[in-house]
C-alpha cells in the first residue's frame, strides 16, 4: 500500500495532472480508507468492492462531495497508478446532497478580525481577503508573483492547474514592498551561509538547475523548516490557527477559517456592484455556477420588503 501511495503522489503532483497538494492528501486518504475497508491490495479488488465502499461512505453520513472525492480518488488510482480497468462500477447508494451557504462577515467584522491577526500573519490575511486567494495559493506565493510594481498578484498552477491575475490593492503596496525587501535580505544571508535553495514546480529544476537559488523563485512567506537543503513555505495550519484565534479575540461568533475571507472578498465585490463574470475570473472558478452562490447578497431588496411588512 505504501508503494501505491508514493506512486499516486508522484503521478498526481507531476504533469500533466499537477494536482494541488491538498487534493493529493485527500486522494491518498481515501485510498487508505478503501484498503482498510477491503483488507486486500488494490489489484485484488473489483468494481463490486468499489461499489460497496462508496455505499458504505454514504451510510457513514459523508456528504455527496466527499463521496465524489472518494470515487475520483479510486478511479484516478486504478487508471494511472494500478493500471487496472475496473469496468462498470454500477449503481451505489448516493450520499445526501446538501450545501450550506458560505459564512460571510460584514466589512466591520473583517476589519476587526484583521486587526487581531498577529503581525507575522497579517499580510497573509490581507491577501486572502483583499485579493481573494486560497490559503495554499497564499502560502506558496513566490517573490516574482507578488508583482508590486504592476500592482498585481499572479497565481500559477492553482486549483485545476489554472493561472490567473488579481489586482493588488493600493493599501497593501507598502507592506508588500517591505515584505519583498525583508525576503531579499533573508535570501542574501542564506546564500552567504551556503543555503538559499527552494523546490521548483514541475520539471523546472531539471531545465533550470540554478533557478532554485534565485530570489525570484523563493517563497514570500517562508517556513523555518528546511528539507534536504530546501527552504519550505509557511504551513497553512499556522495561518488557520492564527485566523481562528483572531476571530475569537475580535468577538466574532461565527465559524471563521482562511477560506471565509475569500467568501467575504467575493460577496463584498458583488455588493459593490461587480459583474458576476469578473468575480468568476478573479476567483478562478471554471464554472460561473460556482460563483453564483455569492449572489445571495442580492436579497437586500427582499429584506427591505420584509422590514416594511414587519413595521
Structure explained in plain terms:
With 311 residues, this protein is mainly α. It contains 14 helices and 6 strands. The strands form 2 sheets. Strands 1-2-3 form a 3-stranded antiparallel beta sheet. Strand 2 and strand 3 form a beta hairpin. The chain is globular and about 60 Å long. 26% of the residues are buried. The model has no long low-confidence stretch (mean pLDDT 89).
In whole angstroms, the N-to-C terminal distance is 65 Å
Strand order of the largest sheet: 1-2-3
Strand count: 6
Helix content: 40-55%
Radius of gyration, Cα only, in angstroms? 22 Å
Overall geometric form: globular
Which structural class do the helices and strands define?
A: mainly alpha
Tell me the strand percentage band: 5-15%
Unreliable stretches (pLDDT < 50, length at least 5) are: none
- The H/E string reads HHHHHHHEEEHEHEEHHHHH
Write the layout of secondary structure elements.
Elements (H helix, E strand, L loop, with lengths): L1 H12 L7 H18 L8 H13 L4 H19 L24 H10 L2 H12 L4 H5 L6 E2 L4 E4 L8 E4 L5 H20 L4 E2 L5 H4 L14 E6 L2 E4 L2 H14 L8 H14 L4 H8 L4 H4 L8 H11 L1
Parallel strand pairs: 4-6
Antiparallel strand pairs: 1-2, 2-3, 5-6
Helix pairs in contact: 1-2, 1-4, 2-4, 3-4, 5-10, 6-11
Characteristic terms for this protein:
three-stranded antiparallel beta sheet; three-stranded mixed beta sheet; mainly alpha
Amino acid at each position: 500500500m505504501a508503494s501505491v501511495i508514493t506512486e499516486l503522489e508522484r503521478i498526481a503532483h507531476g504533469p500533466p495532472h499537477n494536482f494541488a497538494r491538498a487534493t493529493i492528501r485527500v486522494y491518498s486518504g481515501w485510498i487508505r480508507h478503501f484498503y482498510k475497508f477491503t483488507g486486500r491490495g488494490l489489484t485484488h479488488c473489483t468494481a463490486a468492492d468499489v461499489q460497496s465502499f462508496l455505499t458504505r461512505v454514504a451510510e457513514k453520513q459523508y456528504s455527496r462531495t466527499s463521496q465524489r472525492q472518494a470515487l475520483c480518488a479510486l478511479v484516478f488510482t486504478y487508471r494511472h497508478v494500478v493500471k487496472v480497468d475496473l469496468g462498470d462500477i454500477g449503481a451505489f447508494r448516493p450520499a445526501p446532497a446538501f450545501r450550506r451557504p458560505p459564512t460571510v462577515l460584514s466589512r466591520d467584522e473583517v476589519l476587526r478580525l484583521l486587526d487581531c491577526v498577529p503581525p507575522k500573519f497579517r499580510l497573509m490575511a490581507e491577501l486572502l481577503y483583499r485579493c481573494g486567494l486560497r490559503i495554499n495559493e497564499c502560502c506558496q506565493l513566490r517573490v516574482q508573483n507578488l508583482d508590486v510594481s504592476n500592482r498585481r498578484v499572479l497565481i500559477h498552477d492553482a486549483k485545476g492547474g489554472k493561472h490567473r491575475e488579481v489586482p493588488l490593492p493600493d493599501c497593501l503596496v507598502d507592506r508588500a514592498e517591505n515584505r519583498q525587501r525583508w525576503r531579499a535580505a533573508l535570501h542574501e544571508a542564506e546564500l552567504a551561509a551556503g543555503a538559499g535553495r527552494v523546490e521548483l514546480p514541475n520539471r523546472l529544476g531539471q531545465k533550470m538547475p540554478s533557478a532554485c537559488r534565485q530570489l525570484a523563485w523563493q517563497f514570500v512567506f517562508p517556513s523555518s523548516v528546511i528539507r534536504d537543503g530546501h527552504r519550505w513555505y509557511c504551513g497553512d495550519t499556522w495561518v488557520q490557527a492564527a485566523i481562528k484565534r483572531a476571530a475569537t479575540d475580535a468577538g466574532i461568533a461565527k465559524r471563521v477559517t482562511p477560506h471565509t475571507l475569500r467568501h467575504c472578498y467575493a460577496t463584498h465585490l458583488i455588493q459593490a456592484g461587480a459583474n458576476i463574470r469578473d468575480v468568476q475570473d478573479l476567483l478562478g472558478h471554471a464554472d460561473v455556477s460556482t460563483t453564483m452562490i455569492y449572489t445571495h447578497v442580492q436579497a437586500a431588496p427582499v429584506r427591505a420588503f420584509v422590514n416594511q411588512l414587519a413595521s
